[in-house]
Design goal:
about 425 residues, alpha+beta, 6-stranded mixed β-sheet, 11 helices, 20 strands, globular
């Protein structure tokens, strides 16, 4: 794969202004060039399955067991797999093994014997996975985490500790099946462990979601990619977010490399494109003066050697010409709108949950308008399960009287999904 970085921003700041917003588009593609790597990355796929008592309701346990069994048959024997179950205690169903035919058959039999019972203590599963992968080298670890309930209150501090210890060691996709789980919990796990999270109100769809996620994992050709931002000592970075394919705040994951550079982990990559918002706080300069805000780079390690791909410098220039300083770059404006869309959905669902119909209608109407204007069809489809869109251009909607919690959860988890804008101008 060959990495490429493009910067989108308006370099012209008005006199006295100190903030510069930029969008970075990072592309990894097959081909020759700087940072080229081949897809030989070994993978370890670990399924983490909730086996608490509630999983027996509506056959969720049987559906999850079947989804895991179908998925392990798709893993190439050159890779590793393992299965962990959790309730009030963890259980290693299958220790980490090569995905040979014999090991897959053994796993099928072990999964068939899984039974539901007990509470929901998520930390225990993550700590077990950490033990399983201890000492593993040159291998990308990806987990599929399935739960139908909320974590026990007594386990919340331990879960935070477990997630912190997992950061940088594994990636995690989270699936909430049914309607009794907590979106914030799954987002916290997936965001900090550089995965995705979504609702599966119909457990029958779990197998399909596993299959898509597994194909995405298998396509990765390089692990532990980092976005490196070089800045002068006088410049402060105030925002670091992934804005495509979904919005994820990455600020807390940033680590200082030296006095001029910070690294933000981006996880494993295949042939794909992601976009990031970086906001810089600068020391205002006189009219006509310029200053480098930062220089983005992509860093990764291959065969024990760090490889760095340089992007172009992001340079600010102060001007008294309002026609230049008042312009907002199209990419920056687009993703500002996508963040506004996500926030409107979040606040609208909160208003709906507390019975504030008027506020929920206004906020979800605003979301429908932004989604339509930006062409975000995925979010529009999820909105339509919660509201009737009367006039998308005006943001006029009616709350559906028959929309249940399942529709709310799907919208909640999908509200941060974004759509790219292709008409920006590179600076």
């Amino acid at each position: 794969m060959n990495f490429k970085i493009e910067n989108f921003y308006n370099p012209h700041l008005s006199v006295g202004a100190s903030r510069l917003d930029s969008i970075l588009s990072v592309t990894a593609s097959s081909g020759e060039g700087v940072g080229t790597v081949t897809n030989t990355l070994k993978k370890a796929i670990i399924f983490i399955v909730d086996q608490s008592g509630s999983m027996d309701i509506h056959g969720k346990m049987d559906i999850a067991k079947l989804a895991v069994r179908k998925s392990i048959d798709l893993i190439d024997e050159s890779n590793l797999f393992g299965i962990v179950a959790f309730s009030s205690y963890p259980q290693i169903i299958v220790p980490l093994k090569p995905a040979t035919a014999a090991n897959r058959e053994m796993a099928h039999n072990a999964v068939k014997r899984l039974a539901a019972g007990g509470g929901t203590e998520m930390s225990k599963a993550l700590f077990v996975v950490l033990d399983m992968i201890s000492g593993l080298k040159d291998t990308m670890v990806h987990t599929q985490f399935v739960t139908d309930g909320q974590n026990e209150t007594s386990d919340r501090k331990e879960l935070e500790r477990a997630i912190t210890q997992c950061e940088g060691k594994l990636q995690c996709d989270c699936w909430g099946i049914g309607t009794d789980w907590e979106p914030k919990e799954l987002r916290n796990i997936s965001n900090r462990l550089l995965g995705t999270a979504d609702a599966v109100p119909d457990p029958q769809r779990l197998e399909e979601n596993f299959k898509v996620a597994l194909a995405r994992t298998m396509s990765k050709g390089i692990g532990d990619v980092r976005l490196r931002i070089q800045t002068p000592k006088s410049v402060k970075i105030v925002t670091i977010k992934q804005v495509s394919p979904e919005i994820v705040d990455l600020s807390r994951l940033a680590k200082k490399v030296d006095d001029k550079n910070i690294d933000i982990p981006l996880g494993a990559w295949g042939n794909e494109e992601r976009e990031y918002q970086i906001a810089f706080e600068l020391t205002p300069q006189a009219e006509g003066e310029e200053m480098m805000a930062g220089r983005p780079k992509i860093a990764f390690t291959e065969n024990g050697q760090e490889i760095v791909v340089d992007g172009d410098r992001i340079v600010a220039a102060w001007s008294g010409d309002a026609s230049m300083t008042s312009r907002i770059d199209e990419q920056v404006a687009h993703y500002t709108g996508q963040e506004e869309l996500a926030e409107s959905i979040k606040e609208g669902l909160e208003a709906k949950s507390r019975g504030d119909v008027d506020s929920a209608t206004v906020l979800l109407g605003k979301a429908a308008k932004i989604a339509a204007e930006s062409g975000n069809d995925e979010v529009t489809a999820r909105l339509k399960k919660v509201v009737d869109i009367v006039d998308a251009d005006q943001g006029t909607v009616r709350l559906k009287s028959n929309a249940g919690k399942a529709a709310d959860l799907e919208l909640d988890m999908g509200g941060t999904m974004t759509i790219r804008k292709r008409t920006g101008t590179k600076k």
